[in-house]
């Protein structure tokens, strides 16, 4: 009999990931889903085939009925709140898997509390945009006790992701440490693309010519973000794909880790300053791709292209 799974957190990432668990995770019971704002859970449940999901009324309700509980929520405080609620009742023998991007110390703190309560914990942060969560193309980073990691693997490669980075047997914080360092690459990529496109426009090369080079030389995420910039998606969309507040949380974690380790991430400081301008210009609608608007404005162009 397959274990009973629950999914907590149905934002941009969680909706696609839970859908793939249902479609490809070999579940023999409906996936139990929960979201702080209930409408997101009921809307998702309605969009899924009948009988494939059930909406829990609370974190405790979801956890008490499940063997493996996945969480994917905004930030460190959100995961801590959910685990606090989960640990109010007996969790012995259960397995918690956190897919959120959080500080490695927060991850280690979760592991301590969860294992003290007799349950297991695996960190499983993911790389990839919401479109990749939707299509099951994420890269999942797994860390924690080897036996527990093995229990999570059947839901990663080929289900939620295209690949896993396996840190099985290593401390859980290693997974989120890689995730935070890895996300500094993403932030720097968006900064580089933004500066390049502004220079292409102002120097006379032209954005389409630069885009052709990006598509040829750096296909994948570079080309995808370049398209979001040139199409104006970075300022037009009502709901961000990679929200400015989450991007700044990632930058904050990376810069704090650098400081604690006696080094600096100067590129990231530049990108984060642009994100601060994005927040000022667009509020919570701001997206990581909107860095393009901030760089445009600095160069005397309009934020919106
Ligand atoms: N977007 C990306 O490109 C991307 C890629 C890889 C990893 N990540 C990481 O994955 C996680 C989720 O990202 P996302 O893009 O899905 O975020 P999102 O669309 O902003 O959704 C955030 C989710 O967290 C929930 N939440 C926030 N604060 C909460 C709290 N205090 N208690 C309970 N639930 C809370 C939200 O519930 P409500 O619906 O009630 O607000 C929502 O379900 C984040 O850690 C992010 O850094 C994001």
Automatic annotation (TrEMBL):
<dbReference type="InterPro" id="IPR008927">
    <property type="entry name" value="6-PGluconate_DH-like_C_sf"/>
</dbReference>
<dbReference type="InterPro" id="IPR015815">
    <property type="entry name" value="HIBADH-related"/>
</dbReference>
<feature type="domain" description="6-phosphogluconate dehydrogenase NADP-binding">
    <location>
        <begin position="5"/>
        <end position="155"/>
    </location>
</feature>
<dbReference type="InterPro" id="IPR013328">
    <property type="entry name" value="6PGD_dom2"/>
</dbReference>
<dbReference type="GO" id="GO:0050661">
    <property type="term" value="F:NADP binding"/>
</dbReference>
<keyword id="KW-0520">NAD</keyword>
<keyword id="KW-0560">Oxidoreductase</keyword>
<dbReference type="GO" id="GO:0051287">
    <property type="term" value="F:NAD binding"/>
</dbReference>
<dbReference type="InterPro" id="IPR036291">
    <property type="entry name" value="NAD(P)-bd_dom_sf"/>
</dbReference>
<dbReference type="Pfam" id="PF03446">
    <property type="entry name" value="NAD_binding_2"/>
</dbReference>
<dbReference type="InterPro" id="IPR051265">
    <property type="entry name" value="HIBADH-related_NP60_sf"/>
</dbReference>
<dbReference type="Pfam" id="PF14833">
    <property type="entry name" value="NAD_binding_11"/>
</dbReference>
<dbReference type="GO" id="GO:0016491">
    <property type="term" value="F:oxidoreductase activity"/>
</dbReference>
<protein>
    <recommendedName>
        <fullName>6-phosphogluconate dehydrogenase NADP-binding domain-containing protein</fullName>
    </recommendedName>
</protein>
<feature type="domain" description="3-hydroxyisobutyrate dehydrogenase-like NAD-binding">
    <location>
        <begin position="173"/>
        <end position="293"/>
    </location>
</feature>
<dbReference type="InterPro" id="IPR006115">
    <property type="entry name" value="6PGDH_NADP-bd"/>
</dbReference>
<comment type="similarity">
    <text>Belongs to the HIBADH-related family. NP60 subfamily.</text>
</comment>
<dbReference type="InterPro" id="IPR029154">
    <property type="entry name" value="HIBADH-like_NADP-bd"/>
</dbReference>
<feature type="active site">
    <location>
        <position position="179"/>
    </location>
</feature>
């Amino acid at each position: 009999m397959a274990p009973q799974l629950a999914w907590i957190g149905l934002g941009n990432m969680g909706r696609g990931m839970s859908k793939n668990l249902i479609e490809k995770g070999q579940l023999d019971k409906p996936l139990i889903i929960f979201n702080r704002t209930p409408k997101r859970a009921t809307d998702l449940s309605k969009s899924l085939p009948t009988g494939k999901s059930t909406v829990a009324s609370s974190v405790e309700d979801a956890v008490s009925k499940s063997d493996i509980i996945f969480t994917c929520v905004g930030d460190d405080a959100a995961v801590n709140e959910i685990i606090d609620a989960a640990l109010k009742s007996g969790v012995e023998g259960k397995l918690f898997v956190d897919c959120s991007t959080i500080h490695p110390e927060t991850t280690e703190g979760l592991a301590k509390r969860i294992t003290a309560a007799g349950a297991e914990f695996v960190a499983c942060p993911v790389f990839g945009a919401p479109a990749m969560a939707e299509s099951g193309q994420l890269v999942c980073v797994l860390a924690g006790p080897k036996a527990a990691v093995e229990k999570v693997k059947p839901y990663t490669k080929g289900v939620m992701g295209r690949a896993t980075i396996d840190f099985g047997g290593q401390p859980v914080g290693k997974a989120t440490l890689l995730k935070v360092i890895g996300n500094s690459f993403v932030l720097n990529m968006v900064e580089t693309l933004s500066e390049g496109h502004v220079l292409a426009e102002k120097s006379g090369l032209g954005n389409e010519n630069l885009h052709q080079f990006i598509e040829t030389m750096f296909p994948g995420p570079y080309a995808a973000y370049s398209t979001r910039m040139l199409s104006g998606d970075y300022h037009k969309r009502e709901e961000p794909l990679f929200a400015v507040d989450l991007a700044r949380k990632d930058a904050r974690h990376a810069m704090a880790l650098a400081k604690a380790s006696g080094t600096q991430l100067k590129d990231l400081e530049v990108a984060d300053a642009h994100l601060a301008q994005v927040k000022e210009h667009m509020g919570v609608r701001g997206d990581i791709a909107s860095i393009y608007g901030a760089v445009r404005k600095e160069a005397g162009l309009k934020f919106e292209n």
